[in-house]
Design a protein that fits this description.
The protein is mainly β. The chain folds into 2 domains: 20-371, Tachylectin-2, Chain A (5 Propeller); 379-497, Galactose-binding domain-like (Jelly Rolls, Sandwich). It is 5% helix and 41% strand. The chain has helices spanning 73-78, 173-176, 180-187, 191-196; strands at 20-24, 27-31, 50-53, 61-62, 82-83, 87-90, 96-103, 115-120, 128-132, 150-154, 157-164, 203-209, 216-224, 253-262, 265-272, 277-283, 291-298, 322-326, 329-337, 345-351, 379-382, 388-390, 407-411, 414-421, 424-431, 436-451, 454-469, 477-497. The strands form 6 sheets. Strands 21, 22, 23, 24, 25, 26, 27 and 28 form an 8-stranded antiparallel beta sheet that branches. The longest helix is centred in the middle third of the chain and has 8 residues, at 180-187. It is globular and about 70 Å long.
Length: 499
């Protein structure tokens, strides 16, 4: 490593969620949505591809805007002004094809679809609009719900995956009739089209494309079911007709399709209906017989060592990402929430292990993600690299800022932690503290900040410094603050060795 790297691994004023990492040549490229700092909705900015050398994951850079919603002719026609989570693949002609979905609050004719395609001669150049995914007779593909595309070049076969889930499919027929107009409006379909779709329109689906990268040659067909009893949506579902004991129950598909092939096994990575976790399923086939395998990561560490939803370690919300082998090591890429909403999300990553049986144990979220080990026990760190931020009652989701929730925020060009009230824990994992003797925190407000057995009283409207001794001298040690009184903000901290 030329430098250290921590989560979020891009600059702290950059918000790239829904990350799809891919190796092209000697660089790893991150394709994702682009949120606005403190934005009013999802994905308000142009696509911006970030990349790093495979042998230096601290050196991320971008060339600026790579593609905008306005380049798609349907954007003006439908009023859809944003572009949701993309994926990119190298075609058999050597060009790079970017698959995306138009959306936006002002959209007409439904929120999602069709899937658009842009093309470029390089992985991170200026992509130009190429077309929309369609059937051989020229009809645009609106089958199922064209959302969150994922794509893979499987030995010359181009495979496209997409889909989403809402609870309509699980309602008994008579109950569902009440929701059909709402469902049709949401997904840009007629009631007749929805009723004609065997088994409903929800779930993850797969199809193959011709060498033109647009024309469907087979499918689409559903690969993951939408039966998800036991999810947060259960309150609006009827209790009849669901499949008890189904392998997907509790972790059913919601959105965020991603596909990888490792050896002879296909890994389908997705965001579950729990919304905060990336799960995965595997199969020997690309379009059938997928088996649920588990959770890879949760942006609240829910499920890690049995952690319950109520004990989440962050404000949780949407997640979307994938896995990639970089310079011989496997990583999972995901995103976290900031600003107390789902609208300003930042890219994070953690190392993972794929066991001989193909399973991936769930990993803990950390501050040192791509660093290859613990962060140095000396030097200054932004406070916003905390991997845990909770007052013990953190919310999930939210399309409007939660008042008073501990969060990452910004003002006057700076990023810092705010709403650090009594009962708040701020955790950083992990550091090599073997030679660290002191920590200097930059804070403001009025309250009590605690580190270990030491407490500091703060009473200042401007940024001020408080110093703590460091007693935990482990090689792989956390730094955990607690606020026991008042309300504080934190901008940075510095770890120091003895003089």
């Amino acid at each position: 490593m030329k430098h250290q790297v921590y989560n979020p691994f891009l600059p702290t004023d950059v918000y790239i969620p829904d990350g799809e990492p891919h190796i092209f040549g000697n660089r790893v490229y991150l394709y994702g949505s682009h949120d606005k700092e403190g934005g009013e909705t999802f994905c308000m900015l142009d696509y911006e591809v970030w990349s790093a050398p495979v042998d230096d994951l601290s050196d991320w850079s971008s060339k600026g805007s790579n593609f905008s919603a306005a380049q798609d002719p349907l954007s003006k026609e439908t009023g859809r002004e944003y572009i949701y989570a993309p994926d990119c693949v190298r075609g058999n002609d050597g060009k790079y094809y970017l698959y995306y979905c138009l959306s936006g609050d002002k959209g007409v004719g439904g929120y999602f679809g069709p899937i658009g395609v842009a093309v470029c001669d390089t992985p991170d150049g200026k992509f130009t609009f190429y077309g929309h995914v369609r059937f051989a007779d020229g009809r645009l593909c609106y089958r199922f719900v064209p959302f969150d595309p994922a794509v893979i070049n499987d030995g010359g076969v181009i495979r496209l995956y997409y889909g989403t889930w809402y609870p309509f499919d699980e309602l008994p027929p008579e109950e569902r009739k009440k929701y059909l107009p709402q469902e049709a409006a949401m997904f840009g379909k007629t009631v007749e089209e929805i009723l004609a779709e065997p088994g409903g329109v929800m779930g993850a689906v797969s199809c193959t494309l011709a060498d033109d990268m647009l024309t469907i040659t087979d499918g689409p067909r559903r690969i993951l079911p939408a039966v998800t009893k036991g999810t947060p949506f259960e309150s609006i579902l009827a209790k009849d007709g669901l499949i008890e004991g189904h392998q997907w129950v509790g972790h059913g598909f919601y959105e965020g399709s991603s596909i990888r092939k490792i050896g002879d096994t296909y890994y389908f990575i997705y965001s579950s209906v729990n919304n905060h976790e990336l799960c995965y399923a595997t199969s020997r086939y690309p379009d059938r017989d997928f088996t649920f395998r588990g959770t890879i990561v949760s942006n609240g560490d829910v499920g890690y060592h049995g952690r319950k939803e109520a004990d989440r370690l962050n404000h949780t919300g949407t997640t979307h990402g994938s896995i990639e082998c970089i310079n011989g090591k496997w990583y999972v890429f995901y995103h976290r929430q900031t600003h107390g909403t789902d609208y300003s999300r930042q890219a994070c990553a953690e190392p993972i292990v794929i066991l001989p049986d193909g399973s991936i144990p769930q990993v803990e979220i950390t501050s040192c993600g791509l660093n290859g080990g613990p962060l140095a026990g000396t030097g200054e760190y932004p406070a916003v690299i905390c991997c845990n931020l909770t007052d013990g009652h953190m919310p999930h989701g939210g399309n409007a800022s939660f008042t008073g929730v501990p969060m990452v925020t910004d003002a006057d060009g700076e990023r810092f932690l705010t709403n650090l009230h009594a009962g708040t824990m701020i955790g950083y994992k992990y550091f090599d503290l073997r030679a660290t003797q002191a920590l200097d925190a930059e804070v403001r407000g009025k309250g009590t900040l605690v580190l270990g057995d030491a407490a500091a009283e703060v009473d200042s409207d401007v940024w001020t410094h408080v110093t703590f001794p460091v007693c935990d001298h482990g090689e792989n040690a956390p730094v955990v603050f607690h606020v026991t009184a008042g309300n504080l903000e934190m901008r940075s901290f510095r770890l120091k060795e003895c003089a």
